[in-house]
């Protein structure tokens, strides 16, 4: 009796799983090599990229020469003060002591008072003037005399 023996390499199976395994091994070894070769080729090019601006800003030079923008001062305190004539004023004090907003009505429009330097009276057009601290102020309104107001 004669037996026919076919010789198969040990990595090939009848279900094909060996072929997939061989392909995966080959890819694991060639993929890092090809990635390294691509990176080496890119590293060899020492040219700077050329930037082409197809839409230049017409105000670029004007904006570059402008002074830096200063942020508005932060709010230091918001107080409701009672004055000698029994009226109320609502004052928002700002950091730096060079600006305040005064309202004679809680929901009304405010008047911005400013000082040129710290320590000087806060003033606004029309006869507004104010000096003091967030706890006690001397306020002069248009058409009225000076009032002392405190918390």
* Class inferred from helices and paired strands: alpha+beta
Quaternary arrangement of the chains shown?
Answer: single chain
Helicity level: 10-25%
Shape: elongated
Largest sheet: 8 strands, antiparallel
Strand content: 25-35%
Order of helices and strands: HHEEEEEEEE
Name the poorly predicted regions: none
Count the helices. How many?
2
Strand order of the biggest β-sheet = 4-3-2-1-8-7-6-5
State mean pLDDT (0 to 100 scale): 82
**End-to-end CA span:** 120 Å
- For the CA atoms, what is the radius of gyration? 41 Å
Kindly state the number of beta strands.
Answer: 8
What does the model show?
This protein has 151 residues and is an alpha+beta fold. It has a domain at 75-150. Helix content is 22%, strand content 29%. The protein is built from two helices and eight strands; from the N terminus they run ααββββββββ. It has an eight-stranded antiparallel β-sheet with strand order 4-3-2-1-8-7-6-5, with no helix packed on it. The longest helix is centred in the first third of the chain and has 28 residues, at 17-44. The termini are far apart. The mean pLDDT is 82.
What would the keywords be for this entry?
151 residues, alpha+beta, 8-stranded antiparallel beta sheet, 22% helix
Topology:
Blueprint: H1 17-44, H2 60-64, E1 75-83, E2 88-94, E3 99-103, E4 111-114, E5 122-124, E6 128-133, E7 136-140, E8 146-150
Task: Give a brief rundown of this model.
The chain has helices at residues 17-44, 60-64, and strands at 75-83, 88-94, 99-103, 111-114, 122-124, 128-133, 136-140, 146-150.
């Amino acid at each position: 009796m004669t037996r026919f023996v076919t010789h198969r390499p040990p990595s090939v199976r009848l279900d094909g799983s060996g072929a997939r395994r061989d392909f995966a091994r080959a890819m694991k070894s060639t993929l890092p090599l090809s990635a390294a070769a691509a990176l080496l080729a890119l590293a060899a090019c020492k040219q700077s990229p050329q930037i082409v601006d197809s839409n230049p800003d017409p105000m670029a030079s004007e904006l570059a020469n402008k002074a830096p923008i200063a942020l508005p001062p932060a709010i230091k305190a918001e107080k409701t003060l009672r004055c000698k004539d029994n009226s109320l004023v609502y004052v928002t004090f700002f950091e730096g002591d060079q600006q305040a907003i005064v309202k004679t009505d809680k929901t009304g429009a405010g008047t911005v008072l400013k000082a040129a330097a710290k320590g000087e009276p806060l003033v606004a057009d029309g006869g507004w003037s104010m000096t003091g601290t967030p706890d006690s102020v001397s306020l002069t309104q248009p058409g009225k005399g000076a009032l002392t107001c405190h918390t």
